[in-house]
């Protein structure tokens, strides 16, 4: 339990000992915790508790619900500072490292299956500032806005700079307000955006001010292919940014489809290293990508025991 970190940060805020305009010294969240946090409120965990008699429950509990992974926060999360604080506090009490995904940029998913987001740039700035403040001094890992940079070209030309400005603001908020957080800006996947182009975009949104970037969020490319892409992006950046790979559903690689494709499988559970800074289950296995593929009729973000079982068996 890391209450000393929480109390120390609170004391600084109360007494005003921090010099104006300066950020706290960066801390290593791995050194302040003992393993990754298993979210008891994840969709798979809730489904297992509510369907204890279902013949699929045991395998879903063992293979998915008991594994550490990310919780996604967006416009469904209520008061974002309160929600983030409660989640990270629960992890802090357990002495575990939580993984969070910030997913609320205006024009999210370009109006696709996961469309939505904050209603205006001003609303987003308030939201992401409160997100970072909700973490405060507690240890955390945060993935910032999956797909937001990779989908830049789908926006009207006049809106692209606005998105870049918002993502840069997000990076700044975590750098300034969450000193024991490793924050990673999303960088698409191995076959989406050329590495040099993605490096330019990451540089434009201030990736140098945070830990690094993420690859393969909610996608299926192998860890090896993703790591190779990550190294290419890092080389193009010209500075030692770290990267994280989402391995939640990449156990059999990609078949070229991205929306609930058949025949995919769970990948390596969340861990340190493995060809990247971290391997994490960013996408919650069993949560639908949208009304598509083998998840036809299942809205994005909705848990399906059938989708989960197929990821367990690789069918």
UniProtKB/TrEMBL annotation:
One of its GO terms (molecular function) is hydrolase activity, hydrolyzing O-glycosyl compounds. Belongs to the glycosyl hydrolase family 6. Coiled coil: none annotated. GO terms for biological process: cellulose catabolic process. It holds the Pfam family Glyco_hydro_6. Residues 1-25 form the signal peptide. Keywords: Carbohydrate metabolism, Cellulose degradation, Disulfide bond, Glycosidase, Hydrolase, Polysaccharide degradation, Signal. The keyword Transport does not apply. It comes from the Bacteria. The active site is at 109, 147 (proton donor), 289 (proton acceptor). Substrate binds at residues 72, 192, 219, 258, 283. This is Glucanase. The lineage of its organism: Bacteria, Bacillati, Actinomycetota, Actinomycetes, Pseudonocardiales.
């Amino acid at each position: 339990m890391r209450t000393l970190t929480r109390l120390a940060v609170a004391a600084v805020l109360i007494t005003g000992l921090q010099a104006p305009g300066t950020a706290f010294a960066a801390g290593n969240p791995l050194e302040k915790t003992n393993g990754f946090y298993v979210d008891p409120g994840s969709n798979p965990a809730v489904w297992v508790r509510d369907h204890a008699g279902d013949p699929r429950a045991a395998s879903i509990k063992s293979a998915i619900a008991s594994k550490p992974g990310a919780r996604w926060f967006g416009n469904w999360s209520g008061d974002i500072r309160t929600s983030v604080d409660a989640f990270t506090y629960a992890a802090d009490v357990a002495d575990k490292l939580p993984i969070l995904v910030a997913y609320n940029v205006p024009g999210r998913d370009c109006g696709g299956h996961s469309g939505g987001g904050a209603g205006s740039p001003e609303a987003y700035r308030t939201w992401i500032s409160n997100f970072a403040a909700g973490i405060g001094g507690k240890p955390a890992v945060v993935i910032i806005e999956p797909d937001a940079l990779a989908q830049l070209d789908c926006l009207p030309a006049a809106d692209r700079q606005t998105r870049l400005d918002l993502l840069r603001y997000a990076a700044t908020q975590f750098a300034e307000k969450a000193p024991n957080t490793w924050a990673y800006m999303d960088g698409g996947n191995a076959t989406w955006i050329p590495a040099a182009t993605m490096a330019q975009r990451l540089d434009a949104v201030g990736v140098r001010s945070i830990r690094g970037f993420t690859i393969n969020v909610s996608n299926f490319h192998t860890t090896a292919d993703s790591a190779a892409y990550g190294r290419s992006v890092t080389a193009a950046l010209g500075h030692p940014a770290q990267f994280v790979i989402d391995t939640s559903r990449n156990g059999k690689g990609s078949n070229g489809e991205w929306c609930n494709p058949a025949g995919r499988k769970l990948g390596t559970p969340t861990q340190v290293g493995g060809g990247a800074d971290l391997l994490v289950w960013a996408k919650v296995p069993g949560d639908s990508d949208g009304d598509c593929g083998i998840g036809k009729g299942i809205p994005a973000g909705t848990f399906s025991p059938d989708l989960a079982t197929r990821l367990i068996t690789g069918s």
